[in-house]
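Researcher: Let's do a round of design. I'm pasting the structure tokens now; please hold your answer until I've finished.
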């Protein structure tokens, strides 16, 4: 399972020190990082919490769903939905926040990886939800070695390899939520490879920045790229400001898919697929999926 996956970032007004604007309670982990007298971060990284706002403030809000778990002999997990808005009026009152954990990877060949859990904030009885990423598809060894489709989610999981020509083992779709004046990001997973000639390969999980790649010859598909939000939220949160990389698809022989990325290396948080083995977790608090 990936580590807890979500962040909430806010800007205070310009009249009082940032830490005096809020009271945080509940069962979870949060931290406040004050930048100066006019701006601070509140980061929620796990659990269910409440945020009591002392006075109306203008904020930037970021929600990221938990990354999907990878399939066994299969596709990469999809990234959690990335959902954000800027210059949002957060009213005085108590608001509830839920942080979605990452999904467990498949432990056998009887089912896909689990979807990541949703992250949400409720403001004035309106709930804004970033969906967890779709679990990666697992090959169906009990049903004739056909591949399974990746699960739908914030970003879709990758489809698994199939020993036969199949239209089933496609990547999952993005079923991301859409809200007025919010930016919502998520993409589909990649398709698994058909037939054993040329080796095995499963599709990459979708990312916030792009779709997961289809499996190649003797290789798993790359996870979809993450999204660079440094211009809005800086580099303190996420993976140096990147969020939502998809997990790379696995392969049985040959070259495995690589992690979701967005410019350089693992930025974006997606986990690598591996050759003949277990995958690597997505990075904590970035919404990246992974393959197992």
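Researcher: That's everything. Go ahead.
Model: Designed sequence:
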């Amino acid at each position: 399972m990936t580590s807890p996956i979500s962040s909430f970032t806010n800007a205070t007004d310009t009249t009082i020190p940032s830490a005096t604007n809020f009271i945080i309670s509940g069962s979870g982990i949060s931290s406040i990082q004050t930048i100066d007298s006019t701006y601070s971060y509140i980061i929620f990284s796990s659990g269910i919490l409440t945020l009591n706002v002392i006075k109306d403030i203008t904020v930037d809000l970021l929600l990221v769903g938990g990354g999907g778990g990878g399939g066994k002999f299969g596709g990469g997990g999809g990234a959690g939905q990335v959902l954000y808005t800027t210059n949002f009026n957060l009213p005085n009152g108590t608001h509830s926040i839920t942080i979605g954990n990452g999904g467990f990877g498949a432990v056998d060949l009887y089912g896909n990886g689990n979807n990541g859990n949703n992250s949400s904030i409720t403001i004035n009885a309106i709930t804004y939800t970033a969906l967890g990423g779709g679990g990666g598809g697992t090959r169906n060894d009990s049903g004739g070695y056909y591949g399974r489709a990746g699960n739908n989610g914030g970003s879709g999981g990758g489809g698994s390899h199939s020993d036969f020509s199949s239209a089933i083992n496609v990547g999952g779709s993005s079923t991301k939520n859409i809200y007025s004046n919010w930016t919502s990001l998520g993409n589909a997973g990649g398709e698994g490879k058909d037939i054993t000639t040329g080796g095995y390969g499963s599709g990459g999980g979708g990312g916030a920045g792009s779709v997961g790649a289809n499996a190649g010859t003797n290789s798993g598909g790359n996870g979809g790229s993450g999204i660079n939000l440094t211009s809005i939220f800086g580099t303190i949160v996420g993976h140096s400001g990147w969020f939502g990389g998809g997990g790379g698809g696995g392969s049985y022989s040959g070259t495995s898919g690589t992690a979701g990325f967005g410019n350089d290396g693992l930025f974006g948080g997606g986990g690598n697929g591996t050759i003949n083995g277990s995958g690597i977790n997505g990075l904590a608090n970035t919404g990246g999926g992974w393959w197992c």
